[in-house]
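Support case: user asked for a sample of complex input and structure output to validate their parser. Sending the pair below.
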Amino acid sequence: MKQFGIALLVIVISAMGARAQDFKMPVNLDRLAAKASETTEVTLNGRMLKLAQKFMNDEDDAEARELIKNLKGIYVRSFQFDSVGAYSDADLEAVRSQLKSPAWEKVVNVRSKTDGQNAEIYFKGDNPDRIDGLVIIAADPRELTVVHIDGPLDPSNIEKLGGQFGVPRVEAHPKSKPAKAGAQ
Amino acid sequence: MVFSIALRFVRDRSVAEELAQDVFLKLYRELPRLESPEHVKFWLRRVTSHRALDYIRGAHRRAELALDDVPEPTVAGKHNDPLMERSLRKLVSSLPDQARAVIVLRYQEDMEPQEIAEVLGIPAATVKSRLRRSLALLRGKVQRLVGEPIR
Amino acid sequence: MKPNEIDEQLKRALRRCEPPEGFADRVLARVEREASRTTSRSVWTVWRWPFLRWAPIAALIVIAVTGISYQVHERQQEAEARAAKQQVMLALRITGSKLRVAKQKVKSVEAGKVENKL
């Protein structure tokens, strides 16, 4: 038993050297809370997700539990503003700059000049059977939402995300080209 | 990770090594109770931070640092400005202990404010305000160094 | 200077420092010394300390106290788990709604392209 403990310790010591190039919610986004009429913040690391699963034993929770079972984190920052122009592209630069690395692929990029609703979706990883991370930037004139799901996610679960909790299902195309919209 | 956190907090290599050894010794005793690799990582960060902060409080270390005393990373980064990085490291080392702890956990360990709050056992709002104030302080000092505004 | 450059500079400046050479060996040496000391002490203790006759009562007290602490801890964990679950459901709802909006937008774009071609 002691030998096992020592061996485990060796693994831990060597593993602690590595530093992952992970996406992190930039601190500057929190400054927008001061300007927002409504703010929603969710920060759930792996430990909190495991804790949540202990309380998700009902049949209604089964899909959600399945979805989150291997996740390392879920992070949401959502701000609603009373007026247009409360945030700028520069505020989102700290988010987008992290997603320019080769590990991330932009799979959806929709920009609408008519209603000003813009959406970007990024997937992490190059395994077609698995998504290692998901970032959504939903930028509307009076609302900004950034979602980060730290994977792994089964691509078929992306559909369930859209279909669960009272909203219609969404198809998953992890390797599709970005869809761009000009003026509509 | 453990050694690096300890070093940035206590700013003394031999003390940092001793602290890091103590932490791993404690980990050896606690391992059966830890549930997952993430739990181990969280535990290591928390225990290292607390031990380092306890050491600093006990030692009342407020001495001015020579540039040579500031911990240097082992591997050079890409696109780096070595002089700016050294200056920044010295500025971070000169921050008050609690503020330095928050900055190190945020930028060395890439931790979210909520995670930092859990590790240090303080409210997330306190973490965020310390981050904001420390960044403003660092920005101002760097600006005076280079003579142009930094955002 | 670009926005948030201080963030990038701090990340670069505060990259991790590696421990000195031989650090892992020194840690393991300490752990092995501790491991062998613990084994010999446990054998020695049983025969050496007379107050151990009070051990069963002390053990009962420890168990009672630990049991109470454990219940408090359990209740706290339960509250934390309940709150975490609510947060999970909220996050999934928000994510789902944003994915749906993106999907609708993509569909409109594709429908527009088809219309233009016709």
